[in-house]
């Protein structure tokens, strides 16, 4: 029986050695942002020398960027196990007891993180290791003369511009992009949200995947937009909820974002229905001229002849014109009132004729 327990102890000891003597292989990431963890949640092994290298892809002007490494979790055996951080081959720091502050690597350089543990099996069962996140971001927090500010993942900012977020681009001087995948091409323009394009001078565009045509990038043009709200779902599905042009015209709904789509002298263009509890018009022609003594009321016979030849009332637009160009509601209301007032005059005339006929009939009957 003693021999049996002896062999069991040997097997358990051998299993423990194989479990806690593993050495993690080195890993490398070429991503410009991400996370990595060495053992959190499962405890790390003793006698381990594990490396993780971050060699990100930098933009062409790598010196304007920096690699920032942040420790999200840090749980090491104090004074026995260590985490070392290198910039290229230069040691930046060695950490054991406390979580390090964010580490900044010069743009263009790689970083290497090493976990080096001792042979103390028991203690390591109570420690989790570390977890980090990293990102490449613009390093200029203040904008000197003729320079730009970049922050986020691979932003591209030109002179006098600011760029915050992921994969944004600012080409115009004094422009700004905020969010993801946005482009501010016009000077003094802004794009914010996702997939937004601001393509004219002093244009402010927000939302998602707006419809925008390139306008004047360096000066004010009345037919270019000054404000846009995008509601698209992707780069292949671009549309606007609202567009305001620099001439004061406002377009609501899809396909209402260019001056050519907002033709005429009108100020509000809506693609879709309008529901409201009240519409009040302050300037509108009225048809009381029909009751003026000088108004020439057409005889009914002449009106009938016109209808027979043209298929509509005099002064009323034909159906094909309405279908093609629409109607002016104020003008239509005036025409409807004109016809109502003409109809009233016709009824008055007929009433007078009926009265005369009645009087004549009574006179004949009394003879």
TrEMBL record:
Coiled-coil portions: none
Every CUB domain range: 15-137
Superkingdom of source: Bacteria
InterPro entries: CUB_dom (IPR000859), Serralysin-like_metalloprot_C (IPR011049), Sperma_CUB_dom_sf (IPR035914)
Keywords, comma-separated and alphabetical: Disulfide bond, Signal
Signal sequence bounds: 1-26
Gene3D superfamilies: Serralysin-like metalloprotease, C-terminal, Spermadhesin, CUB domain
Protein name in UniProt: CUB domain-containing protein
Organism: Aureibacter tunicatorum
